[in-house]
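Posting for a labmate who doesn't have an account.
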Amino acid sequence: MPDLRGHGLTEAPGHGMDPDTFARDQIALLDALGVDRVRLIGHDWGGYTSFLLAARHPDRVRALLVCNAPHPWVTVRPALLKEAWRTSYAWVLASPLGPVLLKRTDLVRDSLQRDTHGRGFTEEDLDAFAGQWRDDARARATQLLYRSYLRIFATAPWRPPETELRVPAHLLFGRRDVAIAPALVEGFPDVEFVDAGHFIVDERPELVARRARDVFSNAP
């Protein structure tokens, strides 16, 4: 289960904090490990990266399960403007204030617990997630990542269409997600809305495991 560049135990080199680079990183990792094809699960930024990876490299992905992430095939329409308020956190994290707030481990812990209604995260989990941003390089990496998010958001109407997805894929989405609008996943051919927040992997692990077995059992 690899950490994305700049997060967890993966190095934070100070550049390449965007999903296109993340996808290339994962191909490089598979090559380095000598792994030909995988069954892939991704959440949030890992989920968006997984969509890109499966679409651009269908020969490397047997099947895909994504949890609480928008997909790259969203049709930009005026109705999405009313959901723009959900991106307010991204503006804050992308600003000079972002790294300062990320180092406030109490704020990070409270945010995780509110989203999951206090379920799913142990004290050890909370310390691990919140503690990584005490490091200046990782706080800066997250700031750069959300700057890339805002660039993607701003240029979406003019970006060339993403390659069509040609591998079996299922999108599992928690209805109580505040950060990602359901409108950004509606229309995906195989999306399932369930009672959960953004951190569905931690809040509903049994459900995620069942869906993984369902999706992967018939993968070629």
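Reply:
Got it, the structure tokens are right above this. The chain is about 45% helix and 10% strand.
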